[in-house]
Amino acid sequence: MTVPVKKNDRLTVHIEDLTHDGAGVAKVDGYPLFIQGGLPEETAEVHVLKTLKNYGFAKIIDIIESSPDRVEAPCPIFHQCGGCQLQHLSYEGQLKWKQNMVENVMKRIGKLDVPVHPVKGMAEPWHYRNKAQIPFGLEGEVPVAGFYKTKSHAIVDTNRCLIQTAEADAILEGLKPKLWALGLTPYDEKTKQGLLRHVVVRKARTTDEVMVVLVTKKRKLAQKEAIIETVRTLVPNVRSIMQNVNGQDTNVIFGNETLPLWGDEVIEDYIGDVRFEISARSFYQVNPIQTEVLYKQALAYADLTGNETVIDAYCGIGTISLFLAKQAKSVMGVEIVPQAIEDAKRNAALNGFTNTYFEAGPAEEVIPRWYKGGKTADVLMVDPPRKGCDEALLTTILEQKPKKVVYVSCNPATLARDLRILEDGGYKTKEVQPVDMFPHTAHVEVVALMSRVDE
Ligand code: SAH
């Protein structure tokens, strides 16, 4: 492709789409320009910042025709913080764009002509995140805590966030000055000096219980009592205060050692009427309201009568498995992270389920083995990571022909690719339902229902 623009060019473009990072996309003679802050249907004068072989970047100088869905971003640090990408698009506009995007991807990548329902959004799309992971650091000499800038590890010092809980705000605003006053130091990624790396605040929506985890570089933590007292004053509903030690030079938040500081070591939450124990490092969905919407949709598509055997592939801590277990004859879950399988087993026992079975391992190896051993499924549920299902798993599905496949996906592109493979092997995609798990970001979760054509 010849590149039709060069660095420092100024031109007028029409923005057609958004990338999965929420940047506007305009095409100049077919060459995509990514434009931060631009919205679909807008005409803008832009300045070209950089050109690569297949795409380039430009910034807005002036919006000539603005999108009817453009709004003033309510968060004062929206333009610096890397957390949200779409606050400048009205919530209705976000849902409309997400539906369109899923529809286009189904057509373009999946060659599928399938009904894509309007996105199930939130009635109140703010303060939905039940987990805040707040980094400490230094800006020059000044200790700070807040959020990372877009694609960077520079921290914007912040006291409030519109998508996290009031408890996380209270910790951010109240704990920070207290820690500095106590003489504790933030960890500096550049010099590798300092003690405090992150504070993680988790809240269980249904029980209001809160866990606060202080991640430190070393185990020795001075002023423990003062820290505990401050946290308990700031968040009276705290049930667990933990310390996690991470001495590594890494971007990974948690280290291997977790120590109790005060209270219990878990908090409890419910999804539907299933109870979950969450420990400092357990994986747990971050938008509990929409998780329930998503799982209800998966359950509706599975359409269980109580006689079915279900396989839940990529099951995490077994949340979908346990949500389905009451309506199924049995559920078998498989997940690659052994710790998550331990959580799944514990939570199954906690809820008194005797018809669930969990195994740690790659789905594409474990499920073929189950099938060989006669453990088959009427309904196969898959919820893979962004890269989609492993080919070997899709091959197994086509050989074993479960009546129904319910596919939960966080990436419409790999979903469409996998649905096409299953369609070519004798399945038909009946319906596609997007669910907005992450308002103000460009992410969307999708549930698709497939059945065998010959059934
Ligand atoms: N269904 C769960 C988690 C879905 S996230 C929930 O709703 O909470 C996708 C999961 O797939 C992650 O837990 C990840 O650890 C797991 N995973 C990734 N590759 C895998 C593989 N090859 N086999 C099994 N699980 C895998």
Write the layout of secondary structure elements.
Elements: E1 10-18, E2 24-28, E3 31-35, E4 43-51, E5 56-65, H1 91-108, E6 131-139, E7 142-148, E8 155-157, H2 166-181, E9 196-203, E10 210-216, H3 224-234, E11 238-245, E12 257-263, E13 266-271, E14 274-279, H4 288-302, E15 309-313, H5 319-325, E16 330-335, H6 338-350, E17 356-360, H7 363-372, E18 379-382, H8 391-400, E19 404-409, H9 412-424, E20 427-435, E21 445-452
Parallel strand pairs: 3-5, 10-11, 15-16, 15-18, 16-17, 18-19
Antiparallel strand pairs: 1-2, 1-4, 2-3, 4-5, 6-7, 6-9, 7-8, 9-10, 11-12, 13-14, 19-21, 20-21
Helix pairs in contact: 1-9, 2-3, 7-8
The structure holds S-adenosyl-L-homocysteine.
The site of S-adenosyl-L-homocysteine has 18 residues, from helix 5, strand 16 and helix 7.
Enzyme class: transferase
GO biological process, one term: methylation
Family: Belongs to the class I-like SAM-binding methyltransferase superfamily. RNA M5U methyltransferase family.
